Amino acid sequence: MKRILFLILLLLIPTATAISQCNSPIETVDVPCMIVTAWQYPNACSSYSVRIFNSNTTLLSERTLGSYGSSGRCNITFNYSTADSYLLNFSSGDSSSIIVKDENNIYYLYVVAIIVFIILLYLGYSLETPVFTVIAGMVSIVLAVNLFVNGFPNLTNAFLKNGIVSILAGIGMYLVIAPSLHYFENLK
Length: 188
Fold this sequence. Notes:
Blueprint: H1 2-17, E1 26-27, E2 33-40, E3 49-53, E4 59-64, E5 66-67, E6 73-78, E7 84-90, E8 95-101, H2 106-126, H3 130-150, H4 158-186
Parallel strand pairs: 1-8
Antiparallel strand pairs: 2-6, 3-4, 3-7, 5-6, 7-8
Helix pairs in contact: 2-3, 3-4
């Protein structure tokens, strides 16, 4: 039994210490990562180098490529975690770029905005105070505008994004206009 546990532990160690490959854009928490060339060079990898520049065209480093196992492909470890766009110029004449972006904490902002929206809507209808309902509508409109301008993280379907934006904007407009019209009708 101890031998089996020891073998399982030995098999788990390489997966825990392996560096993942860079897939641009990457987040700062995913650095360091490994850049592996998609092509095989005719000479040894150690005869090639890569120059790494930031978006201000400042040379950050020049490194020699290493061999990526027996595949004939080459690799380097990318370890720049500052949010920026990095250009990689290989001595073979090839080039590539990696975009490092900040951690995406916008999910929390959306969750907080939805909770505030629900609380304000509940207060507006339970207390029969239209001010809370109007403010909830404004929160919904602001959320819709933010989704339209910035997009929802990892949502690439434009139809779905525009549908969500339209629904949120419509609910927000209704919640702003309906209580306001009712208020102005009661003023007469």
